[in-house]
Amino acid sequence: MRTSTRWTIAVLVVIVALAVALWREVGSDDADGTGGGADVGAAREHRDADDPQALAGPRAKADLPPCPAPAAGPAPAALTGVTVQCAADGSRVDVGRAVAGRNVVLNLWAYWCGPCADELPAMAEYQRRMGTQVTVLTVHQDENETAALQRLSELGVRLPTLQDGRRLVAAALQVPNVMPATVVLRADGTVAQILPRSFTSADEIAAAVNPRMGVRG
């Protein structure tokens, strides 16, 4: 075998070894939920590791309220048939039916998003002020459901939360690929506005969304 042939084979072996190592590293990141945080094309609702047994402890600690029950009234056409999981208990939620006939503030976020962590307590305070006039429903847009529950627990935020690692809600409503983002839904089933921005206080949220829903608070 000529020297040039030996060198060619050696280089190919090194390239294959590097490719395998990279593939294993990426696979490891996906398995623990740290490598795909900002991947818009996430294909799974949650990680394989987030089975009911693994989620039981984080769910108990987060102590989230149940997601809205199906209600009568008009629903946004774009959300008809969109079904995801409720982070509180793992039940399935038909998003269109859950928001039907309600003034809803949909807050789209992810556990790794810094501005989202700043905004969530403001959303919780806004919900406290508005009472039954408005429903704040958060939508976690990453497959790492355990991390989402842990983040909500750390923040002391108890809001109904949808687990939507596939980002079906954002796709249905054509929300820009930014987080946090807020979607204002009127009780008549119309989408009042999509706000691809962050808020720092309940007052800011009220000023931005209440006029669009025709409520005071």
UniProtKB/TrEMBL annotation:
Keywords of the record: Cytochrome c-type biogenesis, Disulfide bond, Redox-active center, Signal-anchor, Transmembrane
Presence of the UniProt keyword Disulfide bond in the record: yes
InterPro entries hit by this protein: Redoxin (IPR013740), Thioredoxin-like_sf (IPR036249), Thioredoxin_CS (IPR017937), Thioredoxin_domain (IPR013766), Thioredoxin_ResA/DsbE_sf (IPR050553)
Keyword Disulfide bond: yes
Protein name: Membrane protein
GO MF term set: oxidoreductase activity
Subcellular location: Cell envelope
One Pfam family, short name: Redoxin
Region of interest: Disordered: 31-60
Domain annotation Thioredoxin: ranges: 69-214
GO cellular component: cell envelope
One annotated GO biological process: cytochrome complex assembly
